[in-house]
Amino acid sequence: MDAFFNDLAVMAPAVVFNIYFAMASIPLGFVMAVFLALGKASSNPLINALSRGYIYAFRGSPLFIQFFMFYSLALSLNLTVWRPLGISGFVLHPLFMGPLVLVLNTAAYTAEIFYGALRAVPRGAVEAARAYGMSRSQQFRRVVWPNLIRLAWPAYTNEVVFLFHATAIVYFALPVVGPQADLMITAKTLFERDFNAFLHFSVAALYFLVVSLVVFFLFGLVYQRLMRHLPAQPGLHFAPKWFR
Amino acid sequence: MTEDLAFWLSYITNGKHLTWYASFQFTIYAALLGGALAVVFGLTGATLKNSRFFVLRLVGSTYSSIVRGVPDVLFFLFFPLAFEQGVEWLVSTQVCSPEAIAAQTAPWPPCREANWFLGTTEYLLLASVSLGLVYGAFATNVIHGAMRAVPAGQLEAARAYGMSAAQVLWRVHIRQMWVYALPGLSNVWMLIVKATSLLSLLQIADIVLWADRLGAPNFLPTVGLVHDDWRWRYYLVLFVFYILVTWLSERAFEYLMRRTGRGILSEVPA
Predict the structure, then answer these.
(1) Are residues B50 and B180 in the same domain?
(2) Residue B270: is its pLDDT beyond 80?
(3) Which of B253, B244, B198 is nearest to A56 (CA)?
């Protein structure tokens, strides 16, 4: 039991890195995804093809490979670009590279969600907005977007949790700088010290679970706020059937 | 021009590159075996979730929600290590003498005789099993949902024919479930394919590890072609490889869906 609390304490600073990676990439990924989704729905063939290709490529390949690819690309540009500019320490730092690749990745997944929601926006609502004489930007801001975000929010919540889980592989692809280790690296280091796989990995898993639950809770609150114009859904009630 | 072509052709067919091409087999084995196991675990989990007994239902839903609640890479690392330690512990209870245990200085294994050395094959098998376990949890949810999508009339008809509960399950329920499960299972398959890129974390010399070795800068003419850091080119090849696999899988699943949906689904996906 002592070892368990010790692990909890050791991993508390480590979870901050996972949370940092997720928090740094969510806002940018969100904004990028909105543009990508609109691009995928665009009638301009060039924008359409580019957005479609981007979303397909980043959804169709592993994040692990994307990390390696972008990091090695940044490394090979080091001598010619970053070093002369004097920003090589910044660009090649995992705290920058990690969120960069995560943004590129989550933008594609989120864009697909938003694109699906965009197509599910009721046609009648958009037609009514047009009949009122709204401009395209007014249509988007007042009719399409509010519908879109409500439709997409549950799926987007899942994507955020997946993104948080994806932060577990950041440091398997990027170098660990000094004591800046995330949950997985900390668990692995502790494991290599006393070979107690069950304890260390369980504590790391517990942290991931708890943060995931917190994300679900917070995003659920936002969803309730988004849906406040509708009658409240009946709450969950616990009534197990022991045998049926 | 021809000389250049011949040179590059000989470069990409040298021994190291051929080993790289051969290592694609690990990825393919892990994906296929992991996928098959995911379906098996998914069926088991869904059956547990549908069980008549609360405890079994609890086991099924705990499995699917806990495993989906932690990152795949965590479970992917944990399961082979835990399995190895479990076997070593079991062996140690049989082969370790008290003197050997007392003589052991390392924290693990309990004694030197109990050490189990895992080679590539063993790690590949364990990796496939853990892929199956992780994505079986996703498949559990998919199959559970698909089982509920089977029209109740079909099951009632089967019961009216006098089939037993097991017969209804195997001959009607699970047979008809596939059509509804295929779109979800296709997503799970895509996740498994992408997770096969993690094999190098279990000391398997897979495509990612070889891409890293081949692309690493080389300054010694005796070792081979002198080049600077080419790793991104090799990773780009893998990037494209995975996109191609995704594309192929999509086509395959579309075909499967059209084929299994004949006469059941009215709308055929274009």
Answers:
(1) yes
(2) no
(3) B244
